Amino acid sequence: MSAKHKKRLNAVTSARVSLLDKSSTISEGKISKMKSLQPTATTNNPEMNNGSFFSILNVVLGLAAMVSISYVNVTYTYQIHENTLWFTNIKEVEREISFRTESGLYYSYYKQLVDSPSLWQGIRDLTEDKLTEHPDTVNILARMNIYQEVILAFIYRNINFQMEPIMFYINFVFYLQGLLIVGIYLLTWFLSNSWLAGLLASIFYIFNKNDTNRVSSAIPLRECFSLPFLWVQAAALTIYFKPAVSRWLERLSLTAVAFSTFFFCLFWQFNQFIMMLQAFALFGVWVLGLIPASKIKKVMLCQLCSLLLVCLLQFGNKMILGSLAVSFIIVSLTLLSVFKSPSESGSVFFNLLRVVGLSFISLSLMFLLSSVLKVLFQIDADEHIFTFLSDKFTQRDTKNFDSRIYLCLQIFGFITYDVFERLTENFVLPVYVPTHLILLLILVYTVLHRWRSQVKDNKQTDNKENVSEYYFEKHPDIAFHIVLAVFFGALAIITLRMKYFWTPYVCVFAALGVGNEDLWSFVLRLTKASNKHMGVSQVTLVRSALLVLTIAVVTGKLLPGVMKELEGKYEFWDPDTVELMEWIVKNTKPTDSFTGSMQLLAGVKLCTLRPITNHPHYEDKYLRQKTKQLYQIYGKQPPEHVHNILKKYNSNYIILEDSICRAPSREGCRTPDIVDIDNGVMPDDYFKIPDLIVSKIPRFCEMVRHQTQEYAKFFKAVFQNKTFRIYKVL
């Protein structure tokens, strides 16, 4: 080879090597930049060792504060319950009576399982229950969400606890509220990167207990078991949605999501509605391009598997199969697979049209698939919910019995003004509102900016113009919670009972507004309030000082009220109901069945173990129709008609309550009025609904007390006190 060719070859080789070196340098630069996002494990540098020590100390302090505030919540909830009822000192029957309405029904199954010769025998009895809907036999495990009672009975029977079954039950629920605080604490900590913010959110939650939970007044309610797992799930989702987590942490958080979602769904019959709203939020952050489809699909699969597994455990609960949640998740998974990930090209109008179009398609297919499944599986158990919602939003004076029962209950009405007053007085709402609004505005700006500038992966995002986009690239988890909190807020506004999903988010976002480092940096940069060279440590110092100051102010202002509340000592006192239950146990046979108000009969079953004909768990069409007939005891009906109905259902006794029969007018919302309106009869003091006739037949519950010949031949008075009357059906 000539010297000339050698020189040329060396030059080319040298150029290639140079190019490779540059490429290697660029790649190393990218890798270095990526690695800079991860915490390093180097220990040779003394400064890094020092930083590592303080990081570990910070985590230890944060965990210690979490355990402490969790225990404070458990103790506080227990003490409020104890001070209200003196629960540890009253008789067993009084303790059971304190579990009002459906709470008593749920606890009765735990009592049944504990008292059964064996747990397996108790479970078999529940699958062939003859006490709850006499004379019918029903599978309670299929009808109701009571696996928590099965679990607690199993634990109590197999571990030698030195306490009564009822005390073990309520203490377990109280400790679950500690788990709820752990979920809220970790959620806020993960969102803000400050355990002080988690502490503040927990303090907000505890001080606003009247609007964040109702555990101390209704322990066995399904929400008391399920909500702790919802907030554990929220904390796990926060870790999972973060953009730069290790593979093992991603898997661990997804596992936590799967288990917490399953237990939430298992423990509450309203699981489908919350899963639907979560799925809406998941679909929303995907269609806006904030979280990748791969992560969204895995979370939706967790939701779908949880719902289907609960359906299986409830012996094929058709209501879950036909739910809007299942249909929407299936539709969303299909769309996510077909459309892959959102495109960042195109105009604002094109992208907006795409979002609206996909949303419309998903909702339309959801309703279509749900309708098909309901026809296919002959599902009608949830039709009363849609009738109720229709009547509620049209504001019409419905004659429907089921709708009026819900519409006349305040907890199913719109949120009341006093909720906002209390949240404002306790400092949380004034901080929450601007925080959530600012985050929403940043979110909207981020999406519009992406659409407008057609952002590419390699575009710089750390300049001032793109600071909001940079914020949500770092925190897609916050974007998800922003959207979900909007859905939960809307749910709380339209249904007061559902405020317990929204108010914890109020506490979380209020603490986030005070303690989020990136949010403070963004706000300061946007308003030019801080020096551009202001260091991260300085921002951290400012927000930590604000958090400590806020905690001190909130605690100082609200703690005296809590201490005063804890000074109040009361005792459960309901001698008329105690007398009623004791009379039933002593003077009736174990096989005698009872008819009365839904709320009272749940207590009758719990305290006396007598069969009842109806109860307050209202999620079955046949039971709703049966209850409407049995409630003719409060209607304007002749005695022979009422007698025929009671005989049809083999009822031996009826219990009448003067608090219902003689209740003052409430604009058509008394139980007698609801019965009259459904019968097409004009109520005593309500004249707004047209096409009602005036009945000349007197009210049964009032006339039967006089025991005239016309009534005495069908019903015999056997018990009476100031509140209750019992009649034997002859």
UniProtKB/TrEMBL annotation:
Keywords assigned: Glycosyltransferase, Membrane, Transferase, Transmembrane, Transmembrane helix
Name the UniProt record assigns to this protein: Probable C-mannosyltransferase DPY19L3 isoform X1
InterPro entries in the cross-refs: Dpy-19/Dpy-19-like, Dpy19
UniProt key word Transport: no
Family the UniProt entry places it in: Belongs to the dpy-19 family.
Compartments in which it is found: Membrane
Pfam families according to UniProt: Dpy19 (PF10034)
Sequence intervals crossing the membrane: 53-72, 166-185, 219-240, 252-270, 276-292, 299-315, 321-339, 351-373, 427-448, 478-496, 503-523, 535-559
